[in-house]
Specification:
It is a single chain. By secondary structure, the protein is of the alpha/beta class. The protein has 14 helices and twelve strands. Helix 1 packs antiparallel against helix 9, helix 2 packs parallel to helix 9 and helix 10 packs parallel to helix 14. The protein is globular and about 70 Å long. The structure holds pyridoxal-5'-phosphate. Pyridoxal-5'-phosphate binds next to helix 3.
């Protein structure tokens, strides 16, 4: 069966070139902290990777800290800022990834105060709500660049400016944006920014936190002096090399690729609208990730639809991969005002820029026929 992968926001297939480069790194076993030849080789690979990643997002190499992924980067930024302060107030949005939300919930248990900003029906945070939420002791604002379920892109540079005016740290979970949209940390004005390799064709289990020079946050992982004494643990050298290589490839012609992907997204959307009545796109149509479509099929349970699609060779998901299997409707879809019913009848299709029009044509046909079959059974047309 021809498999069609429409879940790139959950993870992307490892780029072939990245894989080959990583293999060569696995062959040299050096520990970057060792002073002899093999160690020095590994150190060199690390340094080079750090330079690549820094350049790709407009940072200095000394501002890049490698982590075990996007989740750790988010945890470090938020817990690190909180531990540094000791007490106080954090502002975040109600549609963040669980790596941010559950971290904030843990801090609440420890006595910190957290405001979870509402979003409008398209998933946008408002600057006014941020201003209104500010308190005397607010020390951190954390808002994601682009939402992983509906793709909505937030006004990050404006939020960063507001935070800067007030002397508050600003962290941005840019895991869905890096490698998909051109992005420059200096132009954005963020203090911290999270990224993850497997969301742009790199390996799983490796990411990075950008920490602007001079930003004071406590360490999260303690031990050796790796990452300039701020993130301990022998480095995942092959993973880091893979991250840097994947980002280099993803960033090559990124604006063009984003345009192409958006075009494919529109093609698929148009096909679905042409074939299936009673459907609705969720998210902000003007400000959205190029590859993400979140769509409600009235009267069609997403869990059952996804199983049917899988049987037909189409891989997609309901919102985030992390919550699939749970019966709770997505917190993101609830936050943008969908009824529980509609939230449970919505799926996410996420494209990469190298999917073909033929695949999208076929995927639309499969989705349409499955939706129609299910509606026939449930009586909804
Ligand atoms: C995937 C994702 C994460 C988690 O990254 P991992 O590397 O999988 O830990 C965090 N935030 C967002 C927005 C994501 O999409």
């Amino acid at each position: 069966m021809n498999r069609i992968y429409l879940d790139n926001a959950a993870t992307m297939p490892l780029n072939e070139q990245v894989y080959k480069k990583m293999l060569s790194v696995f062959e040299s076993y050096g520990n970057p902290s060792s002073v002899y030849q093999t160690g020095r080789e590994a150190r060199k690979l690390l340094d080079k990777s750090r330079e690549h990643v820094a350049k790709a997002i407009g940072a200095l190499p000394s501002e890049i800290y490698f982590t075990s992924g996007g989740t750790e980067a988010d945890n470090w930024a938020i817990i690190g800022a909180a531990l540094e302060k000791g007490s106080g107030h954090i502002i975040t949005s109600s549609i963040e990834h669980h790596a941010v939300l559950h971290t904030c919930a843990q801090l609440e248990k420890m006595g910190f105060e957290v405001s979870y900003l509402p979003v409008d029906s398209s998933g946008l945070v408002s600057l006014e709500d941020i201003t209104n939420a500010l308190k005397e002791d607010t020390f951190l604002i954390s808002v994601m660049y682009a939402n992983n379920e509906i793709g909505t892109i937030q006004p990050i540079s404006e939020i960063a400016k507001k935070a800067q005016e007030k002397g508050i740290l600003f962290h941005c979970d840019a895991v869905q944006a890096v490698g998909h949209l051109p992005l420059d940390v200096k132009a954005l004005g963020v203090d911290m920014l999270s990224l993850s390799a497997h969301k742009f064709g790199g390996p799983k289990g490796v990411g990075a936190l950008y920490i602007k020079k001079g930003t004071k946050i406590a360490n999260l992982i303690n031990g050796g002096a790796q990452e300039r004494g701020r993130r301990a643990g022998t480095e995942n050298v092959a993973g880091i090399v893979g991250l840097a290589e994947a980002l280099r490839i993803a960033n090559d012609g990124i604006e063009q690729k984003a345009l192409e992907t958006a075009k494919k997204r529109e093609y698929l959307t148009d096909r679905l609208f042409g074939l299936i009545p009673n459907i609705k796109i969720n998210g902000n149509l003007e400000s959205r990730l190029p590859g993400v479509i979140n769509i409600t099929f009235k009267g069609v349970s997403s869990q059952a639809l996804l199983i049917r699609l899988d049987r037909c060779g189409v891989a997609a998901s309901a919102g985030s991969a992390c919550t699939s299997g749970s019966l709770e409707p997505s917190h993101v879809l609830k936050a943008i005002g969908l009824s529980e019913e509609d939230a449970k009848n919505s799926i996410r299709l996420s494209l990469s820029n190298n999917i073909s029009e033929e695949e999208l044509y076929e995927a639309a046909n499969i989705i349409a026929s499955q939706v129609q079959e299910m509606r026939g059974v449930s009586g909804v047309k």
